[in-house]
Specification:
The complex is a heterodimer of chains A (about 120) and B (about 110).
Chain A: E1 4-7, E2 10-13, E3 18-25, E4 31-37, E5 44-50, E6 53-57, E7 64-70, E8 73-79, E9 87-94, E10 106-107, E11 111-115
Parallel strand pairs in A: 2-11
Antiparallel strand pairs in A: 1-3, 3-8, 4-5, 4-9, 5-6, 7-8, 9-10, 9-11
Chain B: E1 3-5, E2 9-13, E3 18-25, E4 32-37, E5 44-49, E6 53-57, E7 60-65, E8 70-75, E9 84-91, E10 99-101, E11 105-110
Parallel strand pairs in B: 2-11
Antiparallel strand pairs in B: 1-3, 3-8, 4-5, 4-9, 6-7, 7-8, 9-10, 9-11
């Protein structure tokens, strides 16, 4: 257990559905991240939140909408997805300190998303 | 920009030693991290090198040479459970907390 939980672990949805992925971290960290990992590919950073403020949107399509209501919770709202959006979606957290480089992120187990 | 290169695949036998290399290009540099990810699982942190030299943690060691923009992960006494993908990563200089990951090296350990 890394202290980061994600639900659901598996999700199958149609292209017209709306669903949300949830991430919760129990580590007291102040930064959270969403990554996409397609089969046999590296991690693609989607969104970064520092102190609940979104600091990066890595050219992600608007059909993915993040929400960070507090420093412990992160959501990814999904709507009108495409089959190519099928992937493993990973959430991570870390403790950001001003002037220091971060060397460790803690990842959740991921949500395996299949879009039909 | 920042980019990292590592081999896509490495194969070794149980009990052997394997080295996974990572070269990086960055406009600035803080340190090099390594993560392990088993198939379908979450990446987990293995090590971080901020200074030149070798850091040892059990069967795993990580090396950094800042002058060569190069590092490696050394796995000794390989076990079947070490079969996984290994990613090197560097912190982004622009956004606090952001990591730039390499493509990943898939290690297959054979009996």
């Amino acid at each position: 257990e890394t202290g980061v939980t994600q639900t659901p672990r598996h999700l199958v949805m149609g292209m017209t559905n709306k669903k949300s992925l949830k991430c919760e971290q129990h580590l007291g960290h102040n930064a959270m991240y969403w990554y996409k990992q397609s089969a046999k590919k590296p991690l693609e950073l989607m969104f970064v939140y520092n102190f609940k403020e979104q600091t990066e949107n890595n050219s992600v399509p608007s059909r993915f909408s993040p929400e960070c209501p507090n420093s412990s919770h992160l959501f990814l709202h999904l709507h009108t997805l495409q089959p190519e959006d099928s992937a493993l979606y990973l959430c991570a957290s870390s403790q950001v300190k001003a002037g220091a480089a971060i060397n460790e992120q803690f990842f959740g187990p991921g949500t395996r998303l299949t879009v039909l | 920009g920042q980019s990292l290169e590592q081999p896509s695949e490495v194969t070794a036998v149980e009990g052997a030693i394997v080295q996974i290399n990572c070269t990086y290009q960055t406009s600035g540099f803080y340190g090099l991290s390594w993560y392990q990810q088993h198939d379908g699982g979450a990446p987990t942190f293995l090590s971080y090198n901020a200074l030149d030299g070798l850091e040892e943690t059990g069967r795993f060691s990580s090396f950094l040479s800042r002058s060569d923009s190069y590092g490696y992960l050394l796995l000794q006494e390989l076990q079947m459970k070490d079969s996984a993908s290994y990613f090197c990563a560097v912190p982004s200089l622009n956004q606090g907390g952001k990591l730039i990951f390499g493509q990943g090296t898939e290690l297959s350990v054979k009996p």
